[in-house]
Write a sequence for this structure.
């Protein structure tokens, strides 16, 4: 058994993953709002919470068949880490990566409405 | 533990390999549970954090055969947990597979140094997870057969030859509490999963004890394993503060991987190690001095190697050090033999 579609209880795990996504999206939207208001850098604790949320999504989304969502989360997480650890990226790049992730959330949600979508 | 919802275990009938999975993300634990549910010979217990995991371990009547540890966890991360599990005698040799995301790659070195034997990358490839678990299982079984003839001292555990009570010269010896020293299979797992970026600036070489056969012949089992542990300590001390991992591969040879673009001055390194060993004033148990020296083989950069041949580089480095150790002794023998002939002539 090496196919994700054959994983027992996959649809229930996917449902729980999506239910938990809401809370994580709120954290990211809060950070995005701060950055859009002209903050010169993301506040430390908020950036940490956002990174944790993205890290969690990046870890499980791909396994559950939400490959693009996982990739966007991984990219946004990497931007936050690059900024907080070495200032190797800009606030604009963090903002863009979070926006890309949130756009992907919308696309994923739209895809779930269609009967042909996904592996569940 | 009974009735505690934090720790979940799906009991299966009969005897199973017991796995403890630790991750603060409940979705990952659910995924692992679903994956292991497909493997009838395995049973998974899960814990949502490091402290809870240590509690499960302390209260478990049957020991675990394998650990799956997430790296990034709040309060105490998976690397710290790995190091703590390794301090428990019962789990010094148990496979520990780290669960890592792409952003955790920077912690991989410290995870191996803390005693991890392998790692899995998220998002999971289900077949890969099952393969890694099965490899860990095979390893547990080989360790169990090893333990049937295991001599355990305060520092090391090693395979004993049933007839003379001595470890076979070619067998690896598990040595604990030496910085940067990991088991051979952990070093191989580490190397095979290094990214191209990590390979840049990394290299391998090996250090071999000269006259190892003669020393093995003279030493008792305890003396031999103590000598290997002391040499490991000397090598580790001389390689600090560079970033390195090393493993004892048997036959008196240590395989080393070094990072950060540092190419060691091998001649200087060998001199420092030999000096360190001399200062240790090693002795046989009857008080006679145990004189030994090491030799070093070629340094091989990994960046030029295709991924599949990285382990070959380790084997090449290993053989190169053993050849060099033999060549030095042969040159010395030739010198003394020639000198003797001149004297006679």
């Amino acid at each position: 058994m090496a196919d994700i579609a054959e994983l027992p209880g996959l649809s229930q795990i996917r449902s729980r993953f999506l239910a938990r996504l809401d809370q994580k999206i709120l954290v990211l939207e809060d950070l995005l709002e701060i950055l859009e208001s002209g903050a010169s850098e993301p506040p430390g604790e908020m950036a940490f919470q956002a990174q944790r949320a993205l890290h969690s999504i990046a870890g499980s989304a791909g396994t559950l068949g939400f490959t693009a969502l996982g990739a966007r989360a991984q990219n946004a997480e990497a931007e936050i880490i690059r900024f907080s650890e070495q200032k190797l990226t800009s606030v604009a790049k963090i903002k863009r990566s979070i926006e890309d992730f949130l756009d992907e959330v919308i696309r994923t949600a739209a895809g779930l409405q269609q009967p042909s979508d996904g592996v569940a | 533990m009974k009735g505690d919802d934090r720790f979940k275990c799906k009991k299966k009938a009969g005897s199973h390999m017991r796995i403890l999975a630790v991750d603060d993300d409940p979705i990952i634990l659910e995924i692992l549970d679903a994956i292991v549910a497909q493997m009838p010979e395995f049973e998974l217990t899960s814990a949502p954090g490091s402290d809870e995991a240590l509690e499960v371990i302390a209260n478990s009547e049957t020991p675990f055969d394998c650990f799956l540890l997430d790296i990034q966890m709040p309060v105490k991360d998976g690397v710290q947990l790995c190091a703590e599990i390794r301090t428990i005698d019962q789990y010094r040799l148990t496979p520990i597979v780290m669960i890592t995301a792409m952003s955790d790659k920077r912690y991989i070195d410290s995870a191996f140094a803390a005693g991890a034997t392998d790692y899995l990358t998220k998002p999971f490839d289900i077949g890969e997870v099952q393969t890694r678990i099965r490899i860990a299982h095979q390893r547990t079984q080989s360790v169990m057969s090893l333990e049937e003839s295991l001599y355990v001292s305060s520092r090391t555990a090693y395979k004993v030859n049933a007839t003379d009570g001595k470890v076979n010269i070619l067998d690896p010896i598990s040595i604990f509490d030496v910085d940067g020293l990991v088991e051979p299979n952990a070093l191989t797992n580490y190397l095979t999963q290094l990214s191209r970026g990590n390979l840049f600036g990394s290299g391998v070489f090996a250090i071999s004890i000269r006259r190892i056969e003669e020393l093995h012949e003279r030493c008792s089992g305890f003396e031999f394993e103590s000598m290997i542990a002391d040499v490991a300590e000397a090598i580790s001390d001389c390689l600090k503060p560079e970033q390195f991992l090393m493993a004892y591969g048997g036959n008196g040879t240590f395989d080393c991987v070094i990072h950060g673009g540092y190419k060691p001055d091998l001649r200087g390194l060998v001199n420092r190690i030999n000096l360190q060993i001399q200062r240790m004033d090693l002795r046989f148990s009857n008080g006679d001095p145990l004189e030994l020296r090491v030799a070093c083989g070629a340094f091989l950069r990994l960046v030029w190697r295709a991924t599949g041949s990285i382990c070959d580089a380790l084997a090449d480095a290993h053989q190169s050090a053993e050849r060099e150790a033999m060549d030095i002794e042969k040159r010395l023998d030739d010198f003394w033999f020639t000198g003797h002939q001149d004297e006679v002539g």
Q: What stands out?
A: The radius of gyration of chain B is 22 Å. Chain B has a mean pLDDT of 83. The domain at 1-146 of chain B is CATH 3.40.50.2300 (Rossmann fold).
